[in-house]
Amino acid sequence: MKTILSALILTIASAIAYSQEKPMPLYPKGIPNSKPTPAAYVEKTDKSSWITGVSEPTLTPYLPAKGKANGTAIVVCPGGGYSGLANAHEGMAICQEFNKIGVTAFLLKYRLPSDDIMVDRSIGPLQDAQMAILTVRKNAKEWGINPAKIGIIGFSAGGHLASTEGTHFDKPVIENKENISLRPDFMMLIYPVISFGEQAHVGSRENLVGKTPSAAQVDLYSNEKQVTANTPPTFLVHAQDDNVVPVQNSLMFYDALLKNKVKAEMHLFQEGGHGFGMTNSKNKDKWFDWAANWLDENGFLSGK
């Protein structure tokens, strides 16, 4: 692990020295829980920046303008039903918006669950999310980041991944010999998949745990059931008329946060559907403005 992290530090130093927005391999010395990638399993990105076939996860830093960084960082997880990544409007655009408020963003290109490339597909994406938080926290000094101000944001199935990272951080699925905290300091969940029960987005559930998951697997990845008093403060956004991921996903998670006395703020649009990214076309307000206010109220934009 020490060798892996040393290589990662060199990669990070190079990225800082030469440019931002340059993808770094998440695992420079070998990807855990992986099988040899079949020749037919090829990563592709279409004209809309929709990514499929990810077998080599990366982390891409987006740095605020010089002098604007406030020491807060966030890992960004695009959605895509665990079958692809909506890398434009739920990835790059989000990172750029965080930069405007002084937050250093890290765009995570995570592996999509597949028996073709993984020994256990149900933990592959979570391994990448945990490794992303570990990487940013381990190297916080190099990035000018406060290690106590590292959050995670996810959209749709990326919201499931982010909420899994935020509720399963004490169940490591990566090697972490130095015992670095894998807990995000805050979560932001935008029209998230939360439950694998009756209100599940079936495609996300089937892609992660298969068509016939055990009851134990359904409960494990129904993240409203995994909330504790130590779950990070959470910001939620959803549209009431979402016909892809029912709004009950956010409602159930918010209720669990309330019961465990976790700080939380939720905004519900009466219209907007699913997958609207930064701006809900049915509403003149940008949820990101509310998100920035929430971060500020909780002390995440107040300097290093």
Structural features, described:
The protein is an alpha/beta fold. Helices cover 32% and strands 16% of the residues. The chain contains nine helices and eleven strands. It has helices at 2-18, 88-100, 124-138, 140-143, 157-167, 202-209, 215-220, 248-259, 287-297, and strands at 24-25, 44-45, 50-52, 58-62, 73-77, 85-86, 104-109, 150-155, 186-190, 234-239, 264-269. The strands form two sheets. The chain has an eight-stranded mixed sheet with strand order 1-4-7-5-8-9-10-11, sandwiched between helices. Helix 5 (157-167) links the parallel strand 8 (150-155) and strand 9. Helix 3 crosses helix 5 (157-167).
Instruction: Compute the CA-based radius of gyration.
Output: 18 Å
Question: Unreliable segments (pLDDT under 50, ≥5 consecutive)?
Answer: 13-19
Q: What is the count of helical runs?
A: 9
How far apart the termini lie comes to 29 Å
Arrangement of strands in the largest sheet = 1-4-7-5-8-9-10-11
Helix content range: 25-40%
Order of helices and strands: HEEEEEEHEHHEHEHHEHEH
Instruction: Kindly estimate the percentage of residues that lie in beta strands according to DSSP.
Output: 15-25%
Number of strands: 11
Shape: globular
Overall mean pLDDT stands at 93
Biggest sheet descriptor: 8 strands, mixed
Class inferred from helices and paired strands: alpha/beta
